[in-house]
Structures are given as C-alpha cells and as structure tokens.
Amino acid sequence: MSIRVLIADGHPLARIGLRVVIDRAKTGIEIVAEATNGSEVIDLAEKIPVDVFILDVAMPIMNGIETAAKLVKMKPDRKIIIISLNDSRALVENSIKSGARGYLLKASSTEEIVQAICDVYAGRFYFGPLATNIIIQEFIKQVHGNNKRRGVMEMLTSREREILQLIAEGFSTKDVAAKLRLTLNTIHVHKKNMMQKLDIHKQADLVRYAFKEGISKL
Q: What pLDDT does 218 receive?
C-alpha cells in the first residue's frame, strides 16, 4: 500500500527536487498532487485523498502554517509536515500549534524525508535534530519554571496560605483574626512574613498574587 503525498511549494524547482528525492527512494510513497500555494492545497484536499501533506512554510497567498491550521480545522486527523529553509524557534513552535506533526529543513537528506513521511503517516511525530532540540529546550524551560513556582508556593506555611486566602476574599485584618481566633499582632506578623517570602510590598499586590496562583478565585 502506497502513502499518498501532496507537496506544496511556491517554487517549481523545489517541488521537482522533492518529487525526485521521493521517487528515487522507491519506498512506496506516491506524489498524488502538487500545489503552488495554500489556497490550491485546500481545494485539492477536498477533491483527492491525501495521506500526508508536505507544506512549504513560505508559500504565497496562504503560507504553510496557515494552511496547516485550516486543513486540521477541516479534518482534525490530517497528517502534515512543514518544510522550511530554516528552523527558527518561532517557526517550529507555530508549526506545532497549527497542528503539523512534522517539521523538516529543505536541506534534509533523502533518508530523513522518507522517515518523516513514514512516521507522520503512522501517527507519530517527526522533527529534525535542531527542531527537536528547540522543543526539548522549551520543555525543560517550562519544567524549571513550574518547579520554581512550586518552590515559591511551598515557602508559605498552611497558616499563611489560609490567611492569604481570607485577605484575598476581602476579609479585613480584624475579621481574619476573629475568624481564625488569632491576635491582630499574629496576623500582622504572618502578613509581613508572606510579603518577605514572596518579595511583595503592598497588600493589593498580595491579593493579585493570590488570584494568580489560584489561592482565591473570587
């Protein structure tokens, strides 16, 4: 069974080059259609069966990322590979957000191109080495950011979190003291400690922090 592929690129030589590379590989991958812009891709997608779309990111009329997003909106399980001259962080991230399952450089080897098509066709993801590195770096950044956020939250004691929630919900210092059966001085000490830990200097900012962190949702 062959894998039916549509290739879209505004430059004829780029399309010819990709077709030649795929045809020479003799792996059962069949180029069933070609397009010069995103609008043509959308039209062809409604007329012929395509297993994998290979879209140039810089196509005219509707670029590859916009086209990918529209294809996925029409049919969520569409399998798309974005191909580009470079793999900047923005292009990789926007390609993923559009619903593309693969990202290749135009300078990729025949083996990489064939592997990408086969992987995406099989329901997997394929990103070239540099694009993969960008994804991993972003993931690590998010993990470290979340760990840092948890570290700050863990600095607050359960009593401080309780007081912060009540303050955020609009209770005065006097009301908080009465509700928790603590002295006014104790509440003031807890507030001072919280502000020092969180590097916050105004009660209004303390309240905003509580909303941001989900301590209070009023």
A: 47
Name residues of the chain where pLDDT drops below 50.
Answer: 148-149, 151, 217-218
Q: Which residue has the tokens 């009660």?
A: 203
> Which residue type is seen at 175?
D
Which pLDDT value is given to residue 132?
62
How many Cβ atoms are within 10 Å of 198's Cβ, its own excluded?
18
pLDDT at 208: 80
Cα distance between residue 64 and residue 68, in whole Å? 6
Q: What is the pLDDT, as a whole number, of residue 154?
A: 63
What domains are there in the chain, each with its CATH number?
Answer: 3-129 (3.40.50.2300), 155-212 (1.10.10.10)
Distance CA 20, CA 34 (A): 13
Contact 198, 209 (CB under 8 A): yes
Per-residue tokens: 27: 């792996």
DSSP 151-194: HHHHTS-HHHHHHHHHHHTT--HHHHHHHHT--HHHHHHHHHHH
Q: Establish how many alpha carbons lie within 13 A of residue 185's alpha carbon, considering only the half-sphere containing its beta carbon.
A: 0
* Sheet-wide strand order for 102-105: 29-35, 3-8, 52-56, 80-84, 102-105, 126-127
CB 22 within 8 A of CB 67: no
Candidates 11, 10, 54; CA nearest to 29 is 54
